[in-house]
Design a protein that fits this description.
The protein is α+β, with helices and mostly antiparallel strands. Helices cover about 25% and strands about 20% of the residues. About 5% of the residues have low confidence. Keywords: Membrane, Transmembrane, Transmembrane helix.
Length: about 300
Amino acid sequence: MIKEQRVRIKDCCWFIMICISFSYSFANAQSLRLKSRRADALTGTAFAKSISDTALTLEQREEIIFNEIKNGNVPDFLRKLKEIKINSGWEIGEIKISIAFYVLPDYFCIGSNDDFFYVPMTPILAQKVADLTKCSLPTKKMVDTIYHNATIKLLPQPIPPTKAMTTVAIFLAHNDSVKTQLKSDLQKHNNGELTAGHKKDLIISNKIYTEKTPKVVIYGWHKMDGRAIQPVYNKHTNLWVDYSHGLRLIQNKVFIYLKKNKINKVLTDKYLSSMLSDEGVIKKPFYPITTYKIY
């Protein structure tokens, strides 16, 4: 078994030499690549109200959101990423091989630590934000692992489905319900504690590309027993976004036994992909950045 694992590592070209004495920690160096937030930047509530005009098209709204993010209007608590490790199940002698990746401590927000707005977005915008920040979206396996490691676990807060669930007014209503839950843990949250359970994740999956029409794939809303309310689902087009959707960015850079690699290379490798994906290989580990076309 050990011989077979060594062959796999050699074939994947990710393991050059074993350096047991090398114990440098990368965790402190990982941060979100964005401009600093300006002192006069809009609060989360003010920004949400600024995009509430129902005359705005989805494309116009998301262009405004992207520009706000590009200009750095993001809370401080999202800036320092959290290290997560997954044990691969592989061993070299007595050494267990794991993969380390770095995640936003909460779902993506606009605003300040004191007044932040969880901003739902289509996968078109989510991928643009990921590219801007040198990040990826998570897989289902990564979402489960993040929830397991979260120190602040919030209950899902469903709102009865109506046509209004895609409006900023409902985004704000759900935002308020999540922040009400956070009150007792707000200090820990704003110090960057890993928080999960309150949003469905936009995830990377082969199911993005199963049909001609681009899809959004969602998963999550974990209950306290660790089970997800929302199974992996890809029946909405890539123009669908509702109040429950959250973007959890994952830094592109990962480490396998302290050797640097990239998420897209891991997910497209027939051996390594199982470390981050319970689908195996994900051939296109990204969303297409398309026009806002109604199919």
